[in-house]
């Protein structure tokens, strides 16, 4: 058993509240359970209880065993001086305050219905094939699923915002520079995301702006900083020469950077092609940040990424070997991923920064994009057909699987917790 099970029982009053008594046989009434504390200190604060005729207001601490109080050394921590009730599953020792008065204890192990215990064990103590709630996932109401996935989507956005806001600080609140770094990361996709991001981090965005309008110089800058120029043909020699010139003129450094990988990538995803495409985007304009902020729908954003890759790359995927000519435009599916993983998080972070709320516009935008396809989404769609229809659903499911299912946080998940709240005895 885990302590978060006790938190659930306490928060939702999933125990027999009739004729409660403390371990010392004093009558106990729970007037308000308080509010769960997600930070250091007692588990619930601002609780209100009545012991005998005395009203108390203060904090509540919970443990599987009473002796855990001493095991965690709470008796030495002033943050626990205001604990008015100790809630435990098993009472194996009395707990005293610094003034030697006993802290009242509520024992829960004989006050919880067997159906709740069985549901808890089914979720968290039995073996499952893929998910703890796999046998129940298809039975959740549509409202429950939609509401929780919406929350998961925004929780995932918040996590992505941490990186963006950190970059904002590092760039001196330069949103154009942050967008360039995040776009570079997204152009690298999963395999080369970090390598592309490091390339962008080690460039002064003012130099990128300075070279806008010069696609060849931007190619030399990006591919040179990434360390993937090969002087095996004339174009490679010309790029190398241009990069050496830029490196000397602007005192560029790239010796410590990780080189992008080609291994097991489809040719369209080769780092040479993606960086050449990125150079084409920034050769058209010094900044696209404001254009992106003003764009309200998917198509208007995709229109910003219409590009014309250099003639050399229309016939090459890497240096040296000529291929059949292909325009190598950014595909619609690739741009969907750019919008999901870069544009929407940037918009969300920007709205936070200027202290404006625009959740609905972000929902409208993400719901224009079809669900992503991967093994995680396939799992949920197998358990419940059409769980993921739009990218909001798939992003929400990725957050759910990564942060809750994989970590066995069923009691912090609205879906898992709802199974425990079904007990008929205490509803």
Quickly count the helices.
Answer: 18
**Which H/E pattern describes the elements?**
HEEEEHEEHHHHHHHHHHHHHHHH
Query: In angstroms, what is the radius of gyration?
Result: 29 Å
Helix content: 40-55%
Please, could you describe this protein's structure?
With 427 residues, the protein is an alpha/beta fold. Among the domains are: 3-112, no CATH class; 171-330, no CATH class. It contains 18 helices and 6 strands. The protein has helices at residues 3-11, 68-71, 114-124, 142-170, 175-187, 189-201, 205-210, 215-226, 234-249, 271-284, 289-294, 298-303, 311-314, 332-353, 359-366, 375-383, 391-405, 414-420, and strands at 28-32, 35-36, 44-51, 54-65, 83-90, 105-107. Strands 1, 2, 3, 4, 5 and 6 form a 6-stranded mixed sheet that branches. Helix 2 (68-71) links the parallel strand 4 and strand 5 (83-90). The longest helix has 29 residues, at 142-170. It starts with a helix and ends in a 7-residue tail after the last helix. The model has no long low-confidence stretch (mean pLDDT 94). This is DUF2851 family protein. Residues 355-382 form a coiled coil. It holds the Pfam family DUF2851. Keywords: Coiled coil. InterPro entries: DUF2851.
């Amino acid at each position: 058993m885990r302590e978060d099970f006790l938190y659930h029982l306490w928060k939702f009053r999933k125990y027999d509240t009739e004729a409660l008594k403390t371990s010392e046989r004093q009558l106990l009434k729970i007037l308000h359970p308080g509010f769960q504390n997600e930070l250091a200190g007692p588990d619930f604060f601002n609780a209100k209880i009545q012991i005998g005729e005395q009203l108390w207001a203060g904090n509540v601490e919970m443990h599987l065993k009473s002796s855990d109080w001493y095991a965690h050394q709470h008796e030495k921590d002033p943050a626990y001086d205001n604990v008015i009730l100790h809630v435990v599953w098993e009472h194996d020792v009395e707990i005293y305050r610094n003034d030697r008065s006993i802290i009242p204890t509520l024992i829960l192990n004989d006050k919880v219905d067997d159906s709740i215990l069985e549901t808890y064990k089914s979720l968290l103590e039995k073996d499952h094939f893929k998910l703890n709630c796999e046998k129940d996932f298809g039975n959740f109401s549509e409202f429950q699923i939609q509401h929780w996935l919406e929350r998961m989507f925004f929780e995932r956005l918040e996590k992505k915002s941490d990186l963006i806001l950190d970059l904002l600080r590092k760039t001196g609140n330069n949103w154009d520079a942050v967008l360039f770094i995040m776009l570079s990361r997204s152009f690298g996709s999963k395999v080369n995301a970090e390598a592309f991001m490091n390339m962008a981090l080690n460039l002064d965005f003012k130099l990128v702006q300075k070279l806008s309008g010069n696609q060849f110089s931007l190619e030399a800058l990006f591919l040179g900083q990434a360390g993937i120029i090969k002087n095996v043909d004339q174009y490679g020699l010309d790029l190398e020469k241009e990069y050496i010139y830029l490196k000397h003129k602007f005192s560029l450094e790239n010796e410590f950077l990780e080189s992008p990988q080609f291994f097991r990538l489809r040719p369209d995803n080769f780092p040479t092609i993606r960086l050449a495409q990125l150079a084409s985007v920034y050769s058209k304009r010094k900044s696209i940040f404001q254009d992106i902020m003003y764009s309200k729908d998917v198509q208007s954003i995709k229109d910003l990424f219409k590009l014309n890759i250099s003639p050399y790359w229309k016939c090459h995927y890497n240096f040296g070997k000529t291929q059949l000519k292909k325009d190598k435009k950014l595909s619609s599916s690739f741009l969907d991923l750019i919008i999901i993983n870069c544009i929407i998080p940037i918009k969300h972070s920007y709205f936070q920064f200027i202290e404006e709320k625009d959740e609905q516009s972000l929902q409208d935008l993400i719901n224009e994009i079809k669900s992503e396809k991967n093994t995680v989404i396939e799992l949920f769609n197998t358990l419940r057909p059409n769980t993921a229809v739009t990218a909001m659903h798939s992003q929400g499911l990725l957050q759910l699987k990564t942060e809750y299912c994989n970590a066995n946080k069923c009691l912090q998940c609205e879906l898992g917790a709802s199974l425990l709240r079904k007990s008929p005895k205490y509803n």
